[in-house]
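Write out this protein's structure.
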Amino acid sequence: MNLRLIGIGAGVLIILSLPLAGAIAGPDPAGQDDAKGGGLLSTLGLTDPSRRAPASPPPAGPDPAYRQPGPPEQPRTDATCGPELSSPHGVEAQTCVLVGEGRTWGRSYYRNTSGRPLEAVLTLMGPAGRTVQIRCAVGAGDEPGLCETPREVSAGAPDNYSAVAEFAVPDDEGALLLRSGSNSPAPGGR
């Protein structure tokens, strides 16, 4: 009698747990219900195989017409950079002239460990006296940053451009802490 009660109890528990299993499985993304072969019954593998949707064909293997979409190609950017310089005041910088897609611009990478905010003035000089200048706030901290001029239409060869960044204390005195150029000689004459 005990085995009979245990068997009946187990059967009742299984029957009562089916709606709970359906709730846990969540909604059928294909919008089908159990009567059409989707939902809880298909989750449990209890559907008629003839009612299942056909599988999509595998992608063609080495066929050159089959191509996976990938990230778009990035335009080529050429850079002419001076050496990485540092000052005893806690400023490090490297300044470059960049050229890409018919445009030229200046960029200075920096790190300010001086413990105080600074100001950078980045100047891009080109042929025929063309000059672009921008001021950048340089926050205090050890995080690297960059200052960049607007991208201008190139006028001449990349060798005709140079960039200079000057890092100073932003007050009336404007004490210069570091000057970094795209064509600066390497420290020690290298």
